[in-house]
Amino acid sequence: MGENTILITGGCGFIGTNLVEAALQDGYTVGNLDKLTYAGRLDPPHSPRCFSPYVFRQGDICDIPLVKGFLENLKPSAVVHLAAETHVDRSIDAPEKFVQNNILGTHALLRAVLQYWRQLPEEERYAFRFLHVSTDEVFGSLGPEGFFQESTPYAPRSPYAASKASSDHMVRAYGHTYGLPVIVSNCSNNYGPFQYPEKLIPLAINRAIRGQTIPVYGDGQNIRDWIYVEDHCRALLSILRKGRTGETYLVGGNSEKSNLEVIRSICSILDELHPRADRRGYIQQLTFVQDRPGHDRRYAVNATKIMLELGWKPRVRFNEGIRRTVEWYLSQQRWVEEMLSGKYGLERLGIPKNGVIP
Ligand code: NAD
Predict the structure, then answer these.
(1) d(CA 10, ligand 1 centre) in Å
(2) What is the pTM of this model?
(3) What's the rounded Cα separation, in Å, for the pair 65 and 46?
(4) CA 81–ligand 1 middle distance (angstroms)
(5) d(Cα 152, Cα 48) in Å, to the nearest integer?
(6) Taking a C-beta distance cutoff of 8 angstroms, is the pair 343, 38 a contact?
(7) Is 186 in contact with 316 (CB distance < 8 Å)?
């Protein structure tokens, strides 16, 4: 087993692409297993500056023999599990996919990993980690006060959140029942480079510069705790190195913003970096649209445990991170076009069609 070798699932998605890069920079040998759904792309940010070995395998976490074969060849000392369907609006339109990939997929992965882990020598079994990357959405919706913490009871309210909650429980069950050394992290909303343009921030940037309306769900007062993706990746690598088996770590950016505040920031950065031809502000493209069914009002994370135990804290402030993100999308329009390429046209998803939710 390579002490410094890890398997990342979903390494071609938004966080995965950033994490593969960060892990390679940290000197890990990385195996990346990804099905390459609409959200995944085999991009080469996986830096030529890195000399650490990197192996990509296209495949589905539901395919136990394929996963086992990859594990046996790679011989990782840890698995970092990110592969999932991740868009809440798509989970409203097609919840079955979320059950299949997030619940059954995580379970199939656990079976394959358990078989691999069991045949390791004792010392390597002890050192092994299965890090399950989850979301703060499993805790449901907060009122104006308070924060999620590790002890907050689960109360998922969207099919996406419920599928992640279910996978969290299954991962912990494998820890308790079979002794697999598991850790769960629940992180708040990420933003930054390589996020699929269906999500709030890249959707707003890309619709704005195409002269389209910038949709804001409901009254725009839904609050999320935004974290720059690089900070999340550093947190995951800290957990991998120093996290305690069987524990849960909440990760957050300590940066609560309403959706309306986020959109206003994007518009003012675009006004400066990419002014409209008529010189009028992008804010005039903002349009309030029908709210998401079951839209959670507020998420906020108390990340004290990871800060005190592992010495991690977010470094990138929202103002800086959002500017970097806008700059990245402005300079990467080819990537955006290739990601969309007939699969998605920046349109609204997750609303009842003809009054009926499919
Ligand atoms: P993403 O949608 O950008 O990427 C998901 C990746 O998983 C894609 O590359 C896709 O091809 C791959 N994938 C999907 N199903 C697969 C399967 N069955 N087998 C193999 N690969 C498969 O997602 P993301 O935003 O990068 O999120 C990654 C993980 O982090 C998810 O588990 C998500 O729940 C969690 N998370 C995300 C956020 C966030 O704000 N984005 C916050 C907290 C936790």
Answers:
(1) 6
(2) 0.96
(3) 27
(4) 9
(5) 42
(6) yes
(7) no
Q: Is 233 in the pocket of ligand 1 (CB under 6 A)?
A: no
Q: Give yes or no for a contact between 217 and 259, defined as CB atoms under 8 angstroms apart.
A: yes
Q: Please tell me the residue having the least CA distance from ligand 1 atom 13.
A: 83
Whole-number Å distance between alpha carbons of 86 and 18:
16
Q: Which of 284, 252, 273 is nearest to 328 (CA)?
A: 273
238's tokens:
């800290």
pLDDT tens digits, residue range 182-209? Answer: 999 999 999 999 999 999 999 999 999 9
Rg (CA), the chain: 20
Amino acid at 186: N
pLDDT per position as a tens digit, 230-272:
999 999 999 999 999 999 999 999 999 999 999 999 999 999 9
Q: For 352, list phi and psi in degrees, rounded to 5.
A: -55, 135
318 token code pair: 């929202």
Query: Using CA atoms, how far apart are residues 96 and 160, in angstroms rounded to an integer?
Result: 10
Q: Is the CB of 187 under 6 A from ligand 1?
A: yes
